[in-house]
Amino acid sequence: VQLQASGGGLVETGGSLRLSCAASGGTASTYMGWFRQAPGREREFVATIRWNGGHTYYADSVKGRFTISRDRAKNTVYLQMNTLKPEDTAVYYCAAGRAILSTSATPQGYSNWGQGTQVTVSS
Asked: Which end of the chain, N or C, is more open, meaning fewer C-beta atoms within 10 Å of its C-beta?
């Protein structure tokens, strides 16, 4: 599975961005999700969606501001990010894998990763 992420950029505090992640080469994944990594910090979970059924899960830090969705016909996952804060600044990575619920919020639950897209929120 190859993942191509796009949609990052520079936005002011309170602004919005939408990230996209297109999957190709087969999508035998149970979950597709987004993680992020800020300089000097470990990669952290942001949101994930179960490919069949569409159940979604979010990190507490983004709950109510970010929305993950999928378009099964396009094999694409989206992350709509609203009310952005400077602490949301990071490289965002999409991921796909055969995670189970207990591993769906950990990097270990995903075997395929996109190249990352930079999101910068200015204060």
From this structure: C
What is the per-residue pLDDT across 17-66, written as a single tens digit (0 to 9) for each? 999 999 988 657 889 999 999 999 999 999 999 999 899 999 999 999 99
Instruction: Write the CA distances from 21 to 36, 37, 70, 118, integer angstroms.
Output: 14, 17, 9, 13
Contact indicator for 36, 16 with CB cutoff of 8 Å: no
Q: What would the two tokens of residue 71 be?
A: 């378009």
Q: Which amino acid is at 100?
A: I
114: CB partners within 8 A, 6+ apart? 3, 4, 5, 21, 93, 94, 95
What average pLDDT does range 87-107 have in this prediction? Answer: 93
> Nearest 10 degrees: CA dihedral of 25, 69, 52, 94?
40
Say how far apart CA 48 and CA 41 lie, in whole Å.
Answer: 20
